Automatic annotation (TrEMBL):
Pfam families: GATase (PF00117), GMP_synt_C (PF00958), NAD_synthase (PF02540). The active site is at 79 (nucleophile), 171, 173. The gene is guaA. InterPro entries: Class_I_gatase-like, GATASE, GMP_synth_C, GMP_synth_GATase, GMP_synthase, GMPS_ATP_PPase_dom, NAD/GMP_synthase, Rossmann-like_a/b/a_fold. This is GMP synthase [glutamine-hydrolyzing]. It catalyses: XMP + L-glutamine + ATP + H2O = GMP + L-glutamate + AMP + diphosphate + 2 H(+).
Length: 513
């Protein structure tokens, strides 16, 4: 039985961070919309109420039903959650005279035990709120204050409820709250009594058993990409059902240079039943003269489905389609604001289940990207698969701005191979979360020898991130960038200019299309 902490999502930008911090304590956490709370069973050890972009004083405020929670499990309210608890039990919440946003310090610790154990006055915290709690309900007592916010933390008085309730105005989940992890540990481990035994090995054992129970003696089909998500999903399924797992790896002509052969080779010795499918020309035909990024994605998705479905019909008795869906995708689809307005149409297998009449199995649907990597390591997978940079589903199609031709793909593959190989040569590949080269739809003047050139330009992109939700451009050394630029221009005929993208996400995205 896996114990869990339930996180009620009120739409905060930090909700995923709360889940991540809890999991760093080796305790499984799960995010659910505030209005879709499951019945509390023995696995749910505690409940956390997240922050929110809304105000509890607004008409559009989000109103959770606290009755099934308060007194039933230990509860921690963060920011909006703290304000809502205060208002619900008769406290007073008002608009702040001065909005407190950013770093602050806990000036006074009124109760240095329980939630605040080991946290001393002066501890730096991160505030982000427009409302402030002026009065706490009579069932509660003050725990901590900053110089500007008297009610920085409060908790239920002993005996007020069957289970304790704690509320904090600051965000312990962000790195700027220096004792945030200690506070969350106090709540999850010491107050809620979680054992902290949710490890990669524990996850593998539980998942393999669950897959065996779900799939039984049936057969499963999985589309591999060479990336860490599909590779780890394949290894988990292989451990659960052995040779009843069938894998396709489709060459859409939009992979990196020599990637089709390298990926197939990387699966050698892993015991997987993998079939490589060369469909380059079908994809090129489908993409002919298409420049719009969304139309490119749709053309790739449709062609993928057609190829996949055609090859799948050569197999018999396939009952399940496996996908490498990970937790950020799941969270997005059950957001408190409803499903995303724009569904990522490049999720290649999006239309397959309905077309093929297959049931879905998603071994990784509750893991973040870094957790997937740790599971892969526990499974004994090779580093070059575990540490491989993320690569977009549409591949180089969204790194070639404008229409796609085999000649442009070849040009970009050569430039990109130089960039990626140089990252490895300089020992920088593992320091970067994702890197790639973009072929720009412009030509520029250059001089090579005594000749004037008018050739293509490429942009180099490298970012650092944890899960791709936000990203900072990588501060690569100048001598490295100079070496890459020189090598591309000297060795790839048709490119005479190299630029480096220093945009963060947000406001920019990681990919250019």
């Amino acid at each position: 039985m896996t114990e869990k902490v339930l996180i009620l999502d009120f739409g905060s930008q930090y909700t995923q961070l709360i889940a991540r911090r809890i999991r760093e304590l080796n305790v499984y956490s799960e995010i659910v919309p505030f209005n879709k709370v499951p019945e509390l069973d023995d696995t749910i050890k505690a409940v956390i109420l997240s922050g929110s972009p809304f105000s509890v004083r607004e008409e559009r405020a989000l109103h959770p039903n606290l009755e099934p929670l308060i007194g039933k499990r230990p509860v921690l309210g963060i920011c909006y959650g703290a304000q809502y608890v205060a208002q619900h039990f008769g406290g007073r919440v008002e608009r702040s005279e001065t909005r407190e946003y950013g770093k602050a310090n806990l000036a006074t610790i009124h109760k240095p035990e329980g939630l605040m154990t080991g946290i001393e006055a002066g501890s730096q915290v991160w505030m982000s709120h427009g409302d402030t709690i002026k009065e706490i309900p009579e069932q509660f007592e003050l725990l901590a204050s900053t110089a500007d916010v008297e009610v920085a933390a409060y908790g239920s008085k002993p005996g007020a409820f069957s289970e304790p309730v704690f509320c904090i105005q600051f965000h312990p989940e962000v790195y700027h709250s220096l004792d945030g992890k200690a506070l969350l540990k106090n709540f999850v481990i010491d107050v809620a009594g979680c054992t902290g035994n949710w490890t990669p090995a524990h996850f593998i054992d539980d998942t393999v058993a669950a897959l065996q129970a779900k799939i039984g003696d049936d057969r499963v089909l999985l589309g591999l990409s060479g990336g860490v998500d599909s590779s780890v999903a394949a290894m988990l399924l292989h451990r659960a059902i052995g040779d009843r797992l069938f894998c396709f790896f489709i060459d859409n002509g939009l992979l990196r240079k020599d990637e089709f052969e390298q990926v197939l080779k990387s699966y050698d010795g892993m015991g997987l039943n993998v079939k490589g499918i060369d469909a380059k020309q079908e994809f090129y035909d489908a993409l002919a003269e298409i420049s719009d990024p969304e139309l490119k994605r749709k053309a790739i998705g449709k062609t993928f489905i057609d190829v996949f479905d055609r090859e799948a019909k050569k197999l018999t008795n396939i009952k399940y389609l496996a996908q490498g869906t990970i937790y950020p995708d799941v969270i997005e689809s059950v957001s408190v604001h409803g499903p995303s307005v724009t569904i990522k149409s490049h999720h290649n297998v999006g239309g397959l289940p309905a077309k093929m009449g297959l049931k879905i199995v998603e071994p990784l649907r509750f893991l973040f990207k870094d957790e997937v990597r740790r599971v892969g390591t526990e499974l004994g997978m090779a580093d070059h698969l575990i540490k491989r940079h993320p690569f977009p589903g549409p591949g180089l199609a969204i790194r070639i701005l404008g229409d796609i031709t085999p000649e442009k793909v070849d040009l970009l593959q050569k430039a990109d191979a130089i960039y990626i190989n140089k990252l490895r040569e300089y020992g920088l590949y593992d320091q970067v979360w994702q890197a790639g080269t973009i072929l720009l739809p412009v030509q520029s003047v250059g001089v090579m020898g005594d000749e004037r050139t008018y050739e293509q330009a490429v942009a180099l992109r490298a970012v650092n991130s944890t899960d791709g939700m936000t990203a900072e451009w990588s501060h690569l050394p100048y001598d490295f960038l100079a070496a890459v630029s020189s090598s591309i221009i000297n060795n790839v005929k048709g490119i005479n200019r190299v630029v480096y993208d220093i945009s963060t996400k947000p406001p920019a995205t990681i990919e250019w299309e």
